[in-house]
Amino acid sequence: MTNYDVNSKYRLYNFMRYRYDWPPELISTYNSLLASCHLPTAAIGCLITPKMLKNGRVPVLYVTLVISLVSVSIEMIDNMWAILIGKTLIGFAQGIAATSTGRMIEEYTPG
Description:
By secondary structure, the chain is mostly helical. It folds into two domains: 1-36; 37-111. The chain is built from five helices and no strands.
């Protein structure tokens, strides 16, 4: 685990503890939910990317960029559910990027 991950975890813990005055058990539950909410949408993003790539890889990367910008903007709202929605959307963008980046590397490498 990197130093940023540790700092991010404690920052979120302190945010939940001071902002909402939640007990540690509830904070642990929401930390687990936030850590895993992007996985199902990342899988969905990976599954629909081949259909999106029929229109070209550049529009797919622009869609990924827009979804990422929107999700980060939503995460800036000081609300637990907004952060959860933003992390869910960023998982979708990660799934698209994971699949389309391989196609882009395939096109640019020689031979």
